[in-house]
Amino acid sequence: MEWLQYLLFGVVLFLVIQRLLPTKGLTDLSAEEVFQKLKNPKDHVFLDVREAHEYREGHIKGFKNIPLSQLASRQHEIDRNKSIILTCRSGMRSRQAAKILRRNGFSRISHLKNGVLGWHTGLNK
């Protein structure tokens, strides 16, 4: 029975490490870099992957809301010819969104490194 505890611990540790590792093909952007890209929106798709109620509470102007929970079923709404810039609250869900998009053939994906939480902090240095 002791081996079961070790197995469970190993699985939990693996899942935690997997979430913290960099996402393949995802570029981290600072708040300043995203701010500059927002000045030229025709080249990019800006997606906020937080839930709708979070988005309504406050969002970065120019970002469209497609919640992570709906991303796979709504990917047809995203222009594949543009680079995708993701954001969420802290950067965790945008990493998950990047994995979904990569599995579905999107290649130019980046995200606001610290999410919406780092947006004002990053611009007010």
UniProtKB/TrEMBL annotation:
What organism does the UniProt record list as the source? Answer: Effusibacillus consociatus
Q: Where on the tree of life does the source sit, at the highest rank? A: Bacteria
- PROSITE patterns for the chain: RHODANESE_3
* SMART domains tied to this protein: RHOD (SM00450)
Q: What protein is this chain from? A: Rhodanese-like domain-containing protein
CDD domains found in the cross-reference section: RHOD
Q: Report the InterPro entries cross-referenced here.
A: GlpE_sulfurtransferase (IPR050229), Rhodanese-like_dom (IPR001763), Rhodanese-like_dom_sf (IPR036873)
Start and end residues of each Rhodanese domain: 40-125
